[in-house]
């Protein structure tokens, strides 16, 4: 039977949140804190379930990146990953390499933006939130639903629809991964914490 491995990114393969990381890297501490304060009502409401978490994240993304060219954004993402490879968990990378050696299909299924996750993991297929552009410029909106919760399962099924024909092993660390972990044949909650 074919094997598929699905890994969450933030908190599972990393020691810190990559969204906060890239915002600080891009804007600096002062602009980062100012942006969080400005958007704090939506962030707080999303944290207590009164505002959609994807919409709050989209507002945050738009505040910092709307109007940037895609080329400049992709360059920023590559520089951010190169400067922050230390946030990756060694045991997680070892597990990915082992799965690749087994010739399994390896996916990173994340709510983070694909553009900044992919440079951390060359050679691994990243399935994440995608951004909208217009004539090569970021609109500040997402082109796909936020890849969180049940959306992770939907995205997995879109890539691997023949569910009865593969063994799925999933790794996650939060409520946003619960649906994917429940969907898997084998689930690992909060792995790689050594």
Describe this structure in words.
The chain has one domain (2-189): Rossmann fold (3-Layer(aba) Sandwich), CATH 3.40.50.1000. α7 (178-183) links the parallel β6 (166-172) and β7 (186-189). Strands 3-2-1-6-7 form a five-stranded parallel β-sheet, with helices on both faces. Strands 4-5 form a two-stranded antiparallel ribbon. Helix content is 46%, strand content 21%. The protein contains seven helices and seven strands; from the N terminus they run βααααβαβββαβαβ. It has helices at 18-47, 53-65, 70-83, 90-101, 114-117, 150-159, 178-183, and strands at residues 2-7, 105-113, 125-129, 131-134, 137-142, 166-172, 186-189. By secondary structure, it is of the alpha/beta class. The longest helix has 30 residues, at 18-47.
Helix content: 40-55%
CATH superfamily: HAD superfamily/HAD-like
Strands of the widest sheet, in order across it, are 3-2-1-6-7
Measure the end-to-end span. 31 Å
- Individual helix count: 7
Which spans have pLDDT < 50 for at least 5 consecutive residues? none
Reading the helices and strands in chain order gives EHHHHEHEEEHEHE
Oligomer: single chain
**How many strands, what sense, and barrel or not for the largest sheet?**
5 strands, parallel
CATH-defined architecture: 3-Layer(aba) Sandwich
Q: What structural class do helix, strand and pairing data support?
A: alpha/beta
Basic shape: globular
The total number of structural domains is 1
* Computed Rg: 17 Å
DSSP summary, beta strand count: 7
């Amino acid at each position: 039977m074919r094997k598929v491995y699905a890994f969450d990114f933030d908190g599972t393969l990393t020691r810190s949140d990559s969204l906060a990381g890239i915002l600080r890297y891009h804007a600096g501490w002062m602009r980062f804190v100012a942006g969080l304060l400005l958007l704090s009502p939506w962030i707080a409401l999303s944290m207590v379930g009164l505002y959609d978490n994807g919409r709050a994240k989209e507002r945050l993304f738009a505040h910092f990146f709307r109007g940037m060219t895609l080329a400049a954004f992709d360059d920023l993402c590559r520089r951010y990953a190169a400067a922050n490879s230390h946030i990756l968990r060694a045991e997680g990378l070892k597990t990915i390499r082992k799965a690749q050696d087994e010739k399994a299909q390896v996916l990173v299924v994340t709510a983070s933006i694909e553009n900044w996750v992919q440079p951390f993991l060359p050679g691994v297929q990243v399935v994440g939130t995608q951004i909208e552009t217009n004539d090569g410029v970021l609109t500040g909106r997402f082109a796909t639903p936020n890849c969180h919760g049940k959306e992770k399962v939907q995205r997995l099924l879109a890539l691997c629809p023949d569910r009865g024909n593969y063994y799925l092993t999933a790794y996650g660390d939060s409520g946003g991964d619960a649906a994917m972990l429940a969907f898997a044949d084998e689930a690992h909650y909060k792995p790689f914490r050594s």
